Predict the structure.
Amino acid sequence: MEAIQTLQEFMLQTKNIIYVLIVLGLLAMPAFWRFLNGRDRE
């Protein structure tokens, strides 16, 4: 992996990481919701 040379490259890499984290969070929300609601039935 190459070193980050410019502020532009740093900002692009940071934005890409944030987008991945947002998608993972949105995908995890339904699973967490089912986990919380499943505990009430037991």
In short: The chain is about 85% helix and 0% strand.
